[in-house]
Amino acid sequence: MADAKVTVIARARAKAGLEEQLRQEITALIAPTRAEPGCINYDLHQSASDPALFMLHENWVSMHALEEHLAMPYLEAFKAKAPDLLAEPLDLSFWTMI
């Protein structure tokens, strides 16, 4: 299973008034993440009914590639800022395509 492709759904809720700042911080992650060799796609969405809620839909060639992504300096920098921007902890779920 370690070599199987993995899908990640990441949900982030901005603190009140910080929606645009969170959007900018996540948007800054897109280009470097898409350039990673294991990234298939990395797509940011904002809820149509709740502008504070963001969702990343990610696909990776393997769990190993995802683990390398999670250790990238730009992602570590985002994780350090997250407590100031997020109303609740980042919600990550991991999926395997059937």
UniProtKB/TrEMBL annotation:
Ligase as a keyword of this entry, yes or no, is no
Question: Cross-referenced InterPro entries, in alphabetical order?
Answer: ABM_dom (IPR007138), AI-2_Isomerase_LsrG (IPR050744), Dimeric_a/b-barrel (IPR011008)
One Pfam match, given by its short name, reads ABM
> Which of UniProt's keywords are assigned here?
Monooxygenase, Oxidoreductase
Query: What residue stretches are annotated with the ABM domain?
Result: 6-94
Name of the protein? Antibiotic biosynthesis monooxygenase
Family matches, as PROSITE patterns: ABM
GO MF annotation list: monooxygenase activity
The record, for Gene3D superfamilies, names: 3.30.70.100
The answer to whether keyword Cell inner membrane applies is: no
